[in-house]
Amino acid sequence: MNTDQNSRRKFIKNISLGSVASIISYPMLSSCATPQQNKDKLGIVLVGLGYYSTDLLAPALQETKHAYLAGIVTGTPEKETIWKEKYGIAEKNVYNYNNFDEIANNPDIDIIYVVLPNSMHAEYTIRAAKAGKHVICEKPMALNVQECESMIKACKENNVALSIGYRMHFEPNTQEVMRIGQEQVLGAVQMVCAGAGYRETRKDHWKLKKAMGGGAMMDMGVYSLQAARYVTGEEPIAVTAQEFRIRKDLFTEVEETLTFQLEFPSGALANLHTSFGMNMNYLDVRTEKGYIKLDPFSSYNNINGSTSEKTLNLPQVNQQATQMDEVAVCIKDGKPLRVTGEEGLKDMKVVDAIYHAVAAGNRISLA
């Protein structure tokens, strides 16, 4: 077996792809925490009640079969009444950021889903772990590699599971793209092009603040990076990158648009883009024998695509519901997780290198 095949097979193992509700099934090899088999459904508390929690996660939890919305953590008292009435949440399951640690004494809460600005991911993941609760943390995992490592360490020390909110890993058409690329169904992957972005106009949003983990790369850029990694089944060995700011009055601290290029051990290349200045959402893969396309490739629904041999028309699913259900099943049964903290760490290693490449203006080796 050559080096490229070894690298690809290691990736497939490390990415821990396994399925409860999906069509494509892969082995799950990352260890999880002690099984919680005494519950039919695990209680999830959402920490941070912004758009993603309000418009996507909470509605998705009305569709889940193995998890339910048990509680909330918010710093806005007005939201407490709204959420309690809308979802029938008990008063004892409503927390704020001052009494958050008391959640350790609440048996209703099994999983803490951290849906906060990026700069707060590490703190609340670690506090959740110390409270003895399993954790789902939204992407990107943290601000840097060191924070990711501290989060993984805390969860292992407290024997709780840690999953990162990479919802695309639970989407059937995306899973099929992973399989085609990693198993070289159309020959070896030669080039991956992907772009993810939207036009940000909010002047005071935290995504425009560097200290809070803002910037296009930390938000939408992770999707493009993930696509290159999960299609090739490899970890990049080098990166170059370029930053652009058109609306300099708005983007004073973080990048508006960023392009980055990755090199992989097999010789495959990736030309990737992300932006807060323009709308884009596509994946175009060139292989020895054809192509793979998804457009859109990371939207919340209607993932569509094709290959040089067939149309991709696998079932559309509620990505968030499928994700949370599978995490709950893995925790209940003591099974390995599909997406672990280690997966988030791998992305952050590349993100750190991308920012280094922008600052240095040259190629950065990841070997």
Which descriptors would you attach to this protein?
367 residues, six-stranded parallel β-sheet, 32% helix, 22% strand
The share of residues in helices is 25-40%
Order of helices and strands: HEHEHEEHEHEHEHHEEEEEEEHHE
Put simply, the count of helices is: 10
Strand content: 15-25%
Spans of at least 5 consecutive residues with low confidence: 1-31
Describe this structure in words.
The protein has 367 residues and is of the alpha/beta class. Helix content is 32%, strand content 22%. It has ten helices and 15 strands. It has a nine-stranded mixed sheet with strand order 14-13-12-11-7-10-9-8-15, covered by helices on one side. A six-stranded parallel sheet has the order 3-2-1-4-5-6, with helices on both faces. Strand 11 and strand 12 (291-294) form a beta hairpin. The chain is globular, with a radius of gyration of 20 Å. Residues 1-31 have low confidence and may be disordered.
